[in-house]
What does this fold into?
Amino acid sequence: MIPDVRKSLSEHNLVILQAPPGAGKSTLLPIHLLKEPWLEGRKILMLEPRRLAAKAVASRLAQNLNEDTGETIGFRIRFENRISQQTQLEVLTEGILTRIVTEDQTLDGIGLVIFDEFHERSIHADVALALCAEVQSVLRPDLRILIMSATLDTGYLHHRFPDAPIIRSEGRMFPVTMNYFKEEERTPITSQVTRLVRLALDKEEGDILCFLPGAGEIRKAAELLESETAGVSIVPLYGDLGWREQQEAILPDPAGLRKVVLATSIAETSLTIEGIKVVVDSGYSRVPRFNPNSGLTRLETIKVSKDTADQRAGRAGRLGPGAAYRLWEEGKTQYLLPHRKPEILEADLAPLALDLLRWGKNNLQDFKWVTPPPEAHLQQALSLLHDLGAYKDGKLTSEGVEMSGYPTHPRLARMFLESKRTGHAALAGEIAALLEERNPIPKEKGVNLALSIEWLRNRMEKYSGERVVKAALEWKKRLGVKEQSETISDSEIGYLLAFAFPDRIARKISGSKYRLANGKTASLEDYDPLTHEEWIVAAHLDAGRTDGKIFLAAPLDPTDIVHLASEREIIDYDERKDEIICSKEIHLGAIVLESKPIKNPPPDQLRRVLHGLIKKKGSALFGSDERTQQLRARLSILHHLEAQQWPDLSDASLLLDIPKYIDPFLEQVHRVSDLKKIPLSDILLNALPWDLQQKLPVLLPEFVEVPSGSQIRLEYHDDGRSPVLAVRLQELFGMLETPAILNGKLKIMVHLLSPGYKPVQVTQDLKSFWSNTYHEVRKELRIRYPRHSWPDDPFTAKAIRGVVKKKR
It folds into this structure.
């Protein structure tokens, strides 16, 4: 493997290496590359996805040279570095490299950048690779890039870098025996996994590495194992642990006890954990999923991908033959996703957007991504930067440039700017440390950030090695704080948080539920003391399926955020109330602070709302009756038969040109109910030219006069059927021909009725009816209606409206 990589890097400036765990790609290969002639004395930067891995890999590389870290091999992670003037190879976390590239676009003094464990597809690795590739193509063709992993999906990399050679190595993996166990849906994962751990302790030799989704499951599993397993060291391993605790998991037990390491996905990759011969895999991991609609991230427990499962199982085969215990049936392996999703598809992109804007990429859509992020996520990121004052008119503001200088999320960077202006920098440093690290206060005590700050200040002097304490001290140093932290009130914490989280300023709706400025709702636990506050700022929360859940917050004095409020006029249709709303509001996002009605709204804005409402709901908004429906049918018939002369006045046509047909009737409309006062018939007739209005009653009359003298209303249909004349038979005596309208083009369908208005016959040929059918009908009608006249000769008989009284 090593000779192949050296040869390829001498001939190409980008190489892809796929090699299994234990092949030495992280702990041997970089040392062999230090003396390559093409380096020309420049440094190697090697990226690891996690801080723990970066420090561990640097330490192992230094040991292989019989040196301490900080000599030939050094590391740089957030708030900590061990490098010197003689350092030739720096192991970094990925976010550090992104910042290096944005600050020095030529990467001066760097000859090779190694992306280790690239299969994890972290957002920082993706962006750092894209940035380095751009530096290489534009400014530094001599810059080498090496992409490494055990389980790479080389397809997308080949598509992005078609000229890069791909080197595959078999490595030194020992065989791993796979054991599969059916997952019990109703039994907690921790119970099932600990059962497998106990089984492995009985059947296998060596230490055990057990993968669980998160820290919560690790703590529960540890409790179960410690109460039931004697003579075995149970140690946790996850990102929020301190360095000393993490080292306890990595190194052999000092008392020589057999060890069970309960770990998250942090243990999947570059870390070498001594003595591991068995892997127990729950089959799950916990990942952050960003929702651009809410602007929030929620943790989701998901099934691992196949490459992740293989990576985990491979940990058992580094020292010799091993065993893997998997909590799923063997047949279900084929249904696992082949590769994990790139983080860039599901992450908050605001930090990334700030970095790229600082780099000079004002059009983020044109950036040459390894995997393009969702457009909605990008737009949400830019929207947040705008709200934070970092982005305006397509570029960074001066505040945005200043914010980009802080190695943290733009939200906290915005808080830092405000804290320096108001003299609260010490408090801001403490807040940042608590938000970036794990909250030390148990949730049962409440989510008020003031509790955590009090805890932090009590430990600041005595426990400077703790991770959160160390972070607070580093931030204070970065912010130029020299004095002790000042006395603060809860509302001052809320004031600073409001600058970081303007979209999460929240006002109580009821009980423990709050409405956020971004329009979403979130809740505290019912027992939390913070529920007594009307206003809070939510710093940590989960988006949730419906309402979010607040994990860390602070009370807020609403007078402190008056400057964040803005005024707007609301002239719109409220679907729920079925009303047109005309009001002037002072609001903070979706939170309305004050609302006053507008008595005389601007006519053009009101007209815009009415147009939208009419387009949505159509002619049903206007006054209508049977005569109106008949008018529509008459106009439809005329348009169908004489389209060149008669316009289409269906809903579809009317709504295409509302200003022309409907606007003349909207002058006095201020409420939805006012529309019902406008007869639809007036709108239809007004849409006709004057000459057609005069022709309409002549061509298609509403009424037809029959021989009895009655005016009978015609019933029109807009589906092509003939108009109907429903009339009592006796009123048509003497009418020989069926009446026709539209200049004789449209024959009427006659519905002949009995004196009791019951149907007798339907015909369009009266003459034939009188000649052939009338006499049969007459026999039945004479019996049913004996008081009525039923003459023998309907052709000459006088038409009558009712009963003919007999002479006495």
